[in-house]
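Weekly puzzle thread! Below is a chain. First person to post its structure in token form gets bragging rights.
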Amino acid sequence: MNEFKQVLTIAGSDSDGSAGAQADLKTFMSRGVYGMSVLTAAVAGNSYGIHDSVNLPIDFIKNEIKDIKDDFKISAFKNGMLSDSKIIHTIAEEIKDKPFGTFILDPVIITKHGAMLLETEAYQTLINELFPFADLITPNFYEAKKLSGMELNNKEDFAKAALELRKLGPKNIMIKGKHMDGSQDTVDDYVLLESGKSFWISEPFIDTEHINGTGDTLSSCIVAEIAKGKSMENAIKISKNYTYNAIKNEIAVGHKYGPINHFVDSTISTDLQS
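Winning reply:
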């Protein structure tokens, strides 16, 4: 009983299915684990943009978490958008006894275009209360710049920034490279592991507007692979490859900024050994 690999996302609901908990759940299913969700907010949007949003009541969020704790065996989990300090504090309080295994923290602070998503108070609460619990953080280029207080102009800067981010508490760091500049040939991510080992992962740059949910997909794939017993290093590598293929193999959904393809072959890279 209860032995099938189970994972969790604590995130918002994205009505068009391209990001948020919907993207996480699609990724979990594609990677062969049973996904559950604790919803923190609901967003009304489509491929043209986000048009409305609402936070769920704190007591309801607590009850969602309680019901997951009371019944299921979660091996790994992640967060998505946590929109204010009260929600962030609530999540921190609920996970402090580590009920859900390995924690992959997607900061969701700044968009891939560089726009700030969190107000100052919520930003500080996220750093102070959730970063110390994280087994891995996956900031994008702009988030890594803000969190480290550094410019990221070359590979040496990425390495220095990762060391600064480690001071905030997380065990492992993955800084996602810029991928909105059509002049570049590759997207290059830097990883610093708890052991001190570091490496780069590169995939060809794909010029497409179908990139909604890439960060959600990457972090949720890592969660799935960790739950299946992969090492942190191989979970990251598998997830980078899966996300790349989900971008590369486009699906025609929506009129403008579309989702990536979670239906891409789920066996990709599963031959990597832990």
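Puzzle host: Confirmed. Bonus trivia for everyone else. The chain has one domain: 6-248.
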